[in-house]
Amino acid sequence: MVIETQISDEERKNALVIGTSLEIGECLIKKNYFSFVISKGEWDNSRYLKHYSCDITNLEKTKEILNEIKSLDCIVFAQRYRGEDSRKEYELMVEIPCIIIDYLISTEKLNKNCSIIFMGSDASYTITKQNINYHLSRAGIIQMVKYYANKLANTSAKIRVNCISPCKINKGYINSDFINKIPLKRMCEKKDIYKTINFLNQCGFITGQNIILDGGSSLSLRLYDKGEWKKIISYDNHTYK
Q: What pLDDT sits at residue 196?
């Protein structure tokens, strides 16, 4: 049995979490972080969690909040835009995170070996039922991660930037047809995300990566499992049925 190490309040690291839907702030508290959480909704504060109700597109207020935080060892961008406006999708998911990171760099609030993690989606590398704006923003996140990973690795702080891209997350709705298409025969659970966040925070030699949590569904679509292969001379003269 693994026993969590008990540390003093002064020894706790600081984490900033944007968005509350996955309860990542609470997850980080269990790993000896003090969590600062920013989201549009209401959230109860606790001994190791301080919530700020704010739309991060309100840059003036967002920067006021960031100024209250002394330093950071971890940042998790877990916000999500729910709408059809392509401009707002890009602004919330790509443009504003860039501004936040640049501001934290300029104000020297990122500690050495700080870990920055983006919550992405399988829509960054495959086609889902989400709209085109969702797909474009998730693909944009991957390039943003690579850009900042390269930029921040070349500093004395050695800040790392990575992304986690899960498939459909289990939030109480089950689709057996969907699950049957996943080799591991289950949906992604919140605990899978928490473990990956903890791993990325602890492993100091990973940066610029997109960690795919899809139970193996992206391996090959299982196209080669069944059926008989026949030799053909030309694709142009062959009729497929």
A: 98
